[in-house]
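anyone else get weird line breaks when pasting these?? whatever heres mine. first is seq + tokens for prot A
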Amino acid sequence: MYFTEALAVLARRWYVVLVCGLAVVGGLVMAVKTVPTQYQASGEVLLLLPPAATGKGTPSNPYLNLQPGLTTMATITASELNSKPVHREVEQAGFTSDYAIGVSPDTGPLLLITVKDIDAAEAAVTRDEVIRRITLQLDTLQQGLDVPETQRVYSRRNGSARPAEAVPGAKIRAMAVIAGGGLVGTILLVFTFDRLSRRLRRRNDEEEPARDPGDADEHHRLTLARSVNERDVDEDPHRRKARDAAR
């Protein structure tokens, strides 16, 4: 079927398109009203060495002393807290928001925390709990190795005081699914309805008996005779007698 033929079918069955369009619009309105707004809380944790890590006599700036080992430690910490057992432990503690921890590939030992929830306050609380557990994990990793104080890695929180922000992605995805599904469904329904209608009309035409031409002539004669008789009945008796006498 060519594109112009498809447009002709849609135009011919415009009422089906209208009903489906109204249904799609109703679905979009319902999606805006019912799909909950999702909130995202984010934070950053930077791993640093103490100023005396390069020696007490020659302390250095911790921001300028980012060793490759710090990135390795950040990766290990993120991997541990992203594991399923820790996720279950956090959830059992009452923090049910979804969270993820990643390591910034361009900044070094910088952990990025992202928390999502339909409750803004819950997302912020879960973010703070994850940051707290990052600090605990750092302490656990170093205590097992008897790391000296001058080489002990510590964490610095960045942006953890920001409130959770609304993310419209959930509503947009729901509306996109409804719009796309509605468009495809409308096209399928229109073409199916058009095919069934044409098939039903063709079947009715085949079942209707063909009229005999002789029947048409006989019908015409009967109609003519009936009209003559009716005219004779309605005519005045005196005039009819005069007409018959003239004959």
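and prot B, same format (seq, then tokens)
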Amino acid sequence: MPIIEPLIDIPIGSRFLIESRAALGDTFSPNGMGYSHSRFIALTYLQGDYFLSPHVTAIAGSFLIPFNTFNDRLSPIWISNFQDGPIITGIGVMTGTGVGGMLSGSAIAHNKYSISYNAWFSTSSGNMQFDSTRAFGGRSSLYLPEKHLEIGLSYDRQLQGTRENFYGAHLWWEPANTAFRLRSEFARGHHAQGYWVEADYRLQRFGGLDSWIGRFEPLFRMQQTFRRDTIVSDNVPLVNTQRADFGLDYNLPHNTRILTSYSRQFSSSGNENIWETGIVYRFLFPAWKGKSE
């Protein structure tokens, strides 16, 4: 499954920014007489950001819905530690993107703590590249710099079809002067709820992050989903599911990563093993020469 995710940021003056991301990929699979393949090209999002003040940024266009943290922070393939997202990723994000407007920024910023926010509204769109449902929602996060701890709450409300509320909570902890990270989310919808907890650690104690052993990154993720009914899937399994993911990534120079993982999934519909491996290369370059001040 080769995939390319180009991203572009276009600053216009000091206050306006256009940003977008796309996905171009192919899937090859054996069919008994060779290989069949399916190609896909999609625009992930396209938005304009206007910096009204140090505390407020106005966003318009097609944007990633900021429910919990995975959809808008961890979904790029060069950031995520595992190749697949958590099982509960679909709860609360509807189509994944909204078409409309959002206000985002830092409400309060102090040395001891800061509070950030997102508030958005999306209209209904059936366009193939800009698919969205009519909904609104928001997210607020408290960050404690001394503890390197972030705690946040999310709420979404779907306004078309069946009116539904979605609730979310997340906790991130990255202790100072360590290579350990803990990330977690809880999401609850009308039909299902669940959580995931992920921990990773770079082996920097053995010669530093750039040593051959310091480039190894063991991972573990535990996740569970619980059905409240079986009317709608909410993009999660229709039966209660438990899954443990064990990973070992290797961070090569020049932003190249090798991702490997083994998962064991348990549910009443059957238990299964999941093996995944891949390689990710990230590069960054200026699209045109900047002006010197």
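btw re prot B: The first helix runs from residue 70 to 74. The chain has a mean pLDDT of 93.
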